[in-house]
TrEMBL record:
This is PilZ domain-containing protein. It comes from the Bacteria. The lineage of its organism: Bacteria, Pseudomonadati, Pseudomonadota, Alphaproteobacteria, Hyphomicrobiales. InterPro entries: PilZ_domain. GO terms for molecular function: cyclic-di-GMP binding. Residues 17-104, 120-202 form the PilZ domain.
Length: 203
């Protein structure tokens, strides 16, 4: 779907190179931080591996550096190219390898609805070293479980019980909710995006 030959390992993309990428219309939520450290909720309107258009209440300056965390895609950063009525367009500063990954992720997102594919994980999975832990329910009950995988936005645990979807739980110091059942256990989505430091007890 994308022309990726234009991606340079330096992470910088010229206007001509950005035009070589094909933008795809998406509807992804996220949050972003401007150069003055103000944070805003945002929505991605369309995106390519070279640039992205945000709908956002924040009003950055041209060439301002922006860092964004986008559902299903994770962290992207770049500089503001132009302002539009409801937000702005930002170039994406990334290596060629990162652009290849973005291209694959955007292709997945664009095709997911048509193919009826399940939701993808928003952030890269981390391999936990400390897998034995407990799941705490709101009523105080604790259940031993095994951590199968972990990301900044959620976790999958091997556990005998199946609390209903939407049940509030706590895993370590992280609060979340049950979002999916599977054969071995449950998937948890954290209420807030975690930092790697917050996950150190498991890594």
């Amino acid at each position: 779907m994308y022309s990726t030959q234009a991606a340079q390992n330096s992470g910088l993309v010229s206007p001509a190179q950005r035009r070589a990428f094909q933008r795809v219309a998406v509807n992804l939520q996220g949050r972003l931080m401007l150069a003055n450290y103000e944070e805003y909720v945002c929505k991605v309107v369309d995106m390519s591996p070279g640039d992205v258009r945000f709908a956002c209440a924040g009003c950055p300056l041209p060439n301002e550096r922006v860092i964004a965390y986008i559902d299903h895609l994770g962290r992207v950063e770049g500089t503001v190219l132009k302002l539009v009525d409801d937000g702005f367009v930002m170039s994406i500063n990334a290596t060629g390898r990162k652009r290849e990954k973005l291209a694959a992720q955007l292709t997945w997102i664009a095709n997911k609805h048509e193919l009826g594919l399940p939701e993808d994980r928003r952030h890269d999975r981390l391999t936990p070293r400390n897998t034995r832990t407990e799941l705490l329910l709101e009523d105080g009950r604790r259940y031993p479980c095994r951590l199968m995988d972990l990301s900044l936005s959620g976790a999958a645990v091997d556990i005998d019980i199946r609390p209903p979807i939407g049940t509030a739980v706590q895993l370590g110091n992280m609060r979340g909710r049950i979002v999916r059942h599977f054969l071995e256990g449950v998937a948890i989505e954290f209420l807030t995006l975690q930092s790697r430091e917050a996950l150190t007890e498991f890594l």
